[in-house]
Design a protein that fits this description.
The chain has 3 domains: 120 residues, Rossmann fold; 240 residues, tm_1862 like domain (pyruvate-formate lyase- activating enzyme, Alpha-Beta Horseshoe); 68 residues, Nucleic acid-binding proteins (OB fold (Dihydrolipoamide Acetyltransferase, E2P), Beta Barrel). The strands form 8 sheets. The chain has a 6-stranded parallel sheet with strand order 4-3-5-6-7-8, with helices on both faces. It has 581 residues and is of the alpha/beta class. Helix 9 packs across helix 11 and helix 12 packs parallel to helix 13. The longest helix has 27 residues. It is 29% helix and 19% strand. Strand 3, helix 1 and strand 4 form a beta-alpha-beta unit. The protein is built from 15 helices and 26 strands.
Length: 581
């Protein structure tokens, strides 16, 4: 049996022009995508047990999805799962039974990439098909351990069905381009794509991608690029849709929420005021990470928003170091005084606010004196939520070329800071308080439900199914380092935050009635009778399937052509009549 043709599409960013269609207008037929053919190596040759690639029916296989990293990455994973499930693939939690592994990576730290690399090796040992996503392959697609594997870029997640199809048929496809409109970079794939929420009660909305900074240690910038924001109306529509599907909590996420809108002539407070208008009673909104320089510009407005009853009084502001010299080497574009100004102002104007922050231990050039300044900062503010990271040099970043702090010193500083963080209990003084909390998930040990109060502090409540998705009042009777425990107040009012029943776990959101009807009556297939692939054969010629979210503009095009033909006929008959007269 001859081996199937192995098609590899390398980084397509070079061939995506300013005329590339916008997400809302693009179709499934990709005119700009031209796979190139290379011979399959011996490791990829089909065995007698494998069916020929053109006999495989896409859309019936089981897919296991693993995501590492931030909430933005998790949102991308939810969108990819939703599109695949909507198309007919079965999303499974059992990696062993899956036909294909979709591995959605994080490039922030070495350990995360190590887990990603090990998962690829495990998939290959188990003879699983593999599709790679996330920031690692986007930033460095030509690493040796990624060779021959399919990759879906961080701005191409709306094409995951396409990539999975071809991978299952034995092809290797790489889509890594940027979405542009008249040469201007867009925020990414459209927001109304189908998705499967990991938690049906929580909607993660990416308000922008990329950032305006050039931090010397950051690898994510290589993957996500410069700032590109979604329009306010699209974000508000996404929030409305989420609440209509039973969501009671939305998270706004991006690489830097504070920079939102600077590329499209607006700003974060303007967006937030529009969003709070559509949040139903009993539902809440949580803001994502923002760097100090951009929040400084909007302190007054941000304080007002964080005092809103439907917005958590919580903000994640990474300081990374309390040494100005280290911050300068990091190219963080602020000084410690800026960070303190933000924190002090918000603490004064938003009483009880939770400030979370990040610190990197052992950045190149960090002296003992620099580190002690960081220790003093933590001692002063006693952050209830502190993300402590030992520095890891990421390949290709300027920091990786700097003089490194010895590993033993980095490890000791990380240990010292961790001990300081665990030396205080931020919630002891709250025992005895009566708090209103929103219940959204189950605890890791499955013994409690997890709720959050107005400051986004974690409160464990009794595991009563009637409480899930509800806002209730509790009495705090115990406090730990990272949580409080609350007992339900018997006479308290219970708010049902959702304006409709939440979707079932694993159910696909965002499906229109048109699509539901299409899936019940069969999909719109157009199979190419020829399985041969050449340089002149576009990817879409192997298989063309237009899903509803990829068909926008077809009706308009047909109408336009019809009107043109009608105009030609009218002019023709007018000319004939004029001649006869």
């Amino acid at each position: 049996m001859p081996a199937a043709c192995d098609s590899v599409l390398e980084d397509i960013e070079d061939i995506v022009s300013a005329e590339d269609l916008k997400p809302h207008n693009r179709q499934f037929v990709r005119k700009n995508v031209f796979p190139k053919v290379r011979k399959r190596n011996s490791q990829n040759v089909q065995t007698d047990d494998d069916p020929p690639s053109d006999s495989i029916i896409p859309g019936v296989q089981k897919i296991w999805i693993r995501t590492w990293g931030c909430s933005h990455n998790n949102s991308d994973g939810e969108y990819m799962a939703g599109q695949l499930a909507a198309y007919g693939y079965k999303i499974t939690d059992n990696s062993a039974e899956a036909d294909l592994w979709l591995l959605n990576s994080c490039t922030v730290k070495n350990p995360a990439e190590d887990h990603f690399r090990n998962s690829i090796k495990k998939a290959q040992e188990g003879k699983k098909k593999v599709v790679l996503a996330g920031c690692v392959p986007q930033a460095q697609p030509r690493q040796d351990y990624l060779k021959g594997l399919s990759i879906i870029g961080v701005q191409q997640i709306d094409r995951v069905v396409e990539v999975v199809e071809e991978t299952i048929k034995g092809h290797s496809v790489r889509l890594l381009g940027q979405k542009k409109d008249n040469g201007k970079r867009l925020g990414g794939a459209r927001l109304d794509l189908p998705k499967i929420r990991k938690n049906p009660l929580i909607e993660i909305i990416s308000i922008n991608t990329g950032c305006l900074n050039a931090c010397t240690y950051c690898k994510t910038k290589h993957a996500r690029g410069d700032l590109a924001s979604y329009p306010i109306e699209e974000l508000v529509d996404r929030a409305k849709q989420s609440f209509q599907e039973g969501v009671c909590e939305i998270w706004l996420t991006s690489e830097d929420t504070g920079a939102y809108g600077k590329d499209i002539g607006t700003d974060l407070p303007t967006l937030l005021w529009k969003l709070v208008e559509v949040i139903p009673e009993g539902a809440m909104m949580r803001l994502g990470m923002t760097n100090p320089p951009y929040i400084l510009e909007h302190l007054e407005e941000m304080a007002k928003i964080l005092n809103h009853p439907r917005v958590y009084a919580f903000l994640h502001i990474p300081v990374q170091s309390a040494s100005d010299s280290v911050l300068m080497d990091m190219k963080r574009e602020y000084c410690v005084a800026d960070f303190k100004q933000v924190v002090d102002f918000l603490k004064e104007k938003v009483p009880g606010i939770t400030i979370a922050t990040d610190i990197i231990c052992g950045f190149p050039g960090e002296t003992d004196e620099d580190f002690q300044e960081t220790m003093k900062l933590v001692e002063q503010y006693r952050f209830p939520s502190l993300f402590i990271n030992q520095f890891y040099p990421r390949p290709g970043t300027p920091a990786a070329k700097m003089h490194q702090v010895p590993a033993a010193v980095k490890k000791q500083r990380t240990k010292d800071l961790s001990q300081l963080f665990h030396s205080y209990n931020p919630y002891d003084h709250k025992v005895g308080e009566r708090q209103r909390v929103l219940v959204t998930e189950e605890s890791f040990d499955s013994n409690y439900y997890v709720a959050h109060n107005s400051f986004y502090e974690q409160v464990l409540v009794p595991k009563d199914p009637l409480l899930m998705g509800k806002m209730v009042e509790v009495n705090i009777y115990e406090a730990g380092k990272h949580f409080m425990k609350g007992q339900l107040v018997s006479d308290a009012r219970v708010y049902t935050a959702s304006i409709t029943k939440p979707l079932a776990k694993g159910e696909v959101s965002g499906l229109t009635e048109e699509f539901r009807h299409a899936t019940q009556n069969g999909t719109n297939w157009k199979a190419n009778p020829s399985a041969e692939t050449s340089l002149e054969t576009p990817l879409s010629s192997w298989l063309t399937l237009q899903l509803p979210w990829q068909q926008e503009g077809d009706g308009l095009k047909i109408l336009s052509v019809s009107l043109v033909l009608l105009a030609v006929l009218v002019m023709f008959f007018y000319g004939v009549m004029k001649t006869e007269l």
